[in-house]
Amino acid sequence: MGSGVQHALEQLKTTGVRITPQRHAILTYLMEALNHPTADDIYRALEPQFPSMSVATVYNNLKMFMEAGMVRELTYGDNSSRFDANVSDHYHVICQECGKIEDFSYSSLHEVEHSAEQATGFKIHGLRLELYGVCKCCSEKRH
């Protein structure tokens, strides 16, 4: 998975952003974490490596990654923003009990965007699809 990180960092450099070790670590962590971590999660994971880092530092860097179009902020019911470094087209399934978010892809949704353009004349830039349910862990707990 390392190549994605390198590519992302190259992209950032072209926008004139300095790549500090902290930024490198935050981005790497985000790209490898499949659970869409919160800023707190990232802070806790990286604090041992960067004792001087604060949650605010993490948050400011995430904001900068978002402005660069490399990270998406996901705001869901539990009011904590989660961050997703996968900006390719994909959708989210969200557990209504524990708040876990999983990615899934479904290619024929491109047809929906296309139909929408045809029908409205809009230029469609994106689609956000969320499915709600109960994850495996939570449903096993119930039984």
UniProtKB/TrEMBL annotation:
- One Pfam entry for this protein is FUR
Tell me which UniProt keywords the record has, alphabetically: DNA-binding, Repressor, Transcription, Transcription regulation, Zinc
Q: Which domain of life is it from?
A: Bacteria
Annotated InterPro entries: FUR, Fur_C, WH-like_DNA-bd_sf, WH_DNA-bd_sf
Q: Which family does it belong to?
A: Belongs to the Fur family.
For this entry, the protein name equals Peroxide operon regulator
